[in-house]
Amino acid sequence: xxxxxxxREVFYNQPKLSPDACxxxxxxxxxxxxxxxxxxxxxxVERSNxxxxxxxWKADVREWREGSTTVTIFGNWFSxxxxxxxxxxxxxxxxxxxxxxxxxxxxxxxxxxxxxIISSCWGLFVDIANYLYCSLFNGHQxxxxxxxxxxxxxxxxxxxxxxxxxxxxxxxxxxxxxFVSINFDLYxxxxxxxxxxxxxxxxxxxxxxxGRGVSSNISLYCPTAIFMDADEYLFIVDQNNxxxxxxxxxxxxxxxxxxxxxxxxxxxxxxxxxxxxxxxGNIFVADLNNMxxxxxxxxxxxxxxxxxxxxxxxxxxxxxxxxxxxxxxREDYYYxxxxxxxxxxGCYILxxxxxxxxxxxxxxxNFNLFNPSKNLFLQDDNLGGGDQFxxxxxxxxxxxxxLVVTTSASKMQGNFSxxxxxxxxxxxxxxxxxxxxxxxx
Length: 441
Prior knowledge:
Blueprint: E1 22-23, E2 28-31, E3 42-45, E4 51-55, E5 60-64, E6 71-74, E7 80-85, E8 91-95, E9 100-104, E10 111-116, E11 121-126, E12 131-136, E13 141-146, E14 157-160, E15 175-180, E16 186-190, E17 195-199, E18 207-211, E19 223-228, E20 234-238, E21 243-248, E22 251-256, E23 272-277, E24 283-287, E25 292-296, E26 298-300, E27 309-317, E28 323-325, E29 332-334, E30 336-342, E31 346-354, E32 358-364, E33 376-380, E34 390-395, E35 401-407, E36 414-422, E37 426-430, H1 434-440
Antiparallel strand pairs: 1-26, 2-25, 3-4, 4-5, 5-6, 7-8, 8-9, 9-10, 11-12, 12-13, 13-14, 15-16, 16-17, 17-18, 19-20, 20-21, 21-22, 23-24, 24-25, 27-36, 28-29, 30-35, 30-37, 31-34, 31-36, 32-33, 32-35
């Protein structure tokens, strides 16, 4: 590659994060309907912590500088899709109405056409060699164009997808968010294939690193955005599962929106799409159907705080165990309700171990067995590996948490144990007759 002379700093935030890093699952609303609409497809946080949001229906870009509540509005386009902001503050946008990518200067008073394309760019990205990437979500490709030299605006190189919609390694199906590492490896949120594809530099055959087609402890349903930390661990917006997940040395885990249920509570999302880190490791996400931008605060970034097992709980699901209709199911399931006790707010880990396929639910305040979707905080099937559930989350001392242990299949029986660890002492206590407990509380 001859572009080494043009190597630049990265324009975006890639914080150094521990594999055990923990975010408060209750988001803070950063901006609401006046600043975002349900079709906002792009959000960018640059290194000085200025936040940019592209608002499609108003066809403009909105800017918040750190510490200021004043919103600056740039542009008056007809229709916009992709957004990327360079380190000098110039704004790259996809002008959807005329199929071209434009660069607006810092004062947004003049624009330069960068690429003339045949389809809209859902995602834009500028790598450290100053190549502009565009994900053609209707063209099922990702292309790039050098910004270093004067070139024909229609001259682009295809870097992913053969233009035919499909699931093969050289195909994409409605690609959306993209990310290019400092090694020029391209990651693509291949939304309709429910996967994330990695295209090594110079390779047109992609490698599935998450989602459909790869054996892992997590599945995706329409991923729409990708971002990375300093160690190149993936953070994925899993849009139709209403959550954000991350990769780690031991597999994937959910960070926010982990109930699996869309909603408007602080710990819920509804069809999230663009997301990004700020310089402190906090996560900003456009929560589209709730028409708000949520900010999730990084509360723990140490590598060893949650690693010491504080408590071990053992029990058994038998024919004498209580039964209920599991969340989203019509069959009866044996279950056991367990109260989670801890001495202070912090990040905690709960992992099951059993010869049967366990399924875990964590509820706040109380668990209503007649309405198992109410107060649902977290749910998981196999993040612990080997068909076992695992929760890694910030727990608040002012909230009561009820862990419900059940199974993936109806009326399964068997022994199980739960290991609990965290930054403070944590214990687990069985609630022996949960129906009576519920009536009394």
